[in-house]
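tRNA-dihydrouridine synthase
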Amino acid sequence: MQIANISFPEYPVFLAPMEDVTDPYFRLMCRQFGADMVYTEFVSADALIRGAGRTGQKLELGRDLRPVAVQIYGKDVDSMVEAAKIAEAAGPDILDINFGCPVKKIAGKGAGAGLLRDIPRMLDITRAVVKAVSLPVTVKTRLGWDASEIIITELAPRLQDCGIAALTIHGRTRAQMYTGDADWSPIAAVKADPRIRIPIIGNGDITTPARAKECFDRYGVDAVMVGRAAIGRPWVFREIKDLLEGNPSPEAFTPARQMEILKRQVADSIEFLGERRGILHVRRHIAVTPLFKGIPNFKSTKIRMLRAETMAELFSIFDEVAAFLNPPQVHSRPEADCFTCGYA
């Protein structure tokens, strides 16, 4: 599969852009576990132009393994063009436009999925951004505004005609937000449309290796994108790739190894943001990681974890939890490949 002149292996698996999640360190970790491409947190066009807050920090790509995409969002042509040029200067491989964010403060103001209610403006923005930069431009969007407006099958060819190099479709409407099941049938219909010449990337409920394989086999997509399932579980990419590639000796992510990975996430987050902000940032990973599921009487310990204010305090609690976990096992891969243990 190719996006413009960028080649990907068979069955590409991408890390979705997620606000307050896909920071440089997390992107690097997901790449090292097998993600074929990663995306930055989405970047507000208006904030990027103003140089507001930590917006510019989102464009720091120095640690990324290539290819990497920057995603921007906004509601008018001029600001999106100016932001696209600023983003291009940061040196990504792909520039992605967000037409899918459903949250009220974005969609309610006419950006993100809000543009599903103003298709002419969406197309104007897309054409203008494609013309303004030399990078491949891609789009991420949803099925439509709500169940009565499933428009993606007719929208996809129109976006393609604007010059985009690939299209990612989340199998939900804006009204669904992140609830209910993702519907991949319209995604399959877009992929089967003879008018479509660009790669179609499917997104929504890719939570297991088996589901990823099913989406390739059943819906015919060119790539899949993993979002929330990677939070607190970056090793999900290696699990998916092992199945897709027919790896006869899948890598074993024992509880002890998962703990090592989680500790590295904490340390990386603190290095990136400082101790206080870094711990606040990584809490969502701690809250949802499957590592702690099934431990008896864990609620009070989880609360202590989420209230910890220093790395020393948090790691001390982790060490207490380790008593409930299985002992470490010998890794199936050579130590030189095991970055989570400090060998790479």
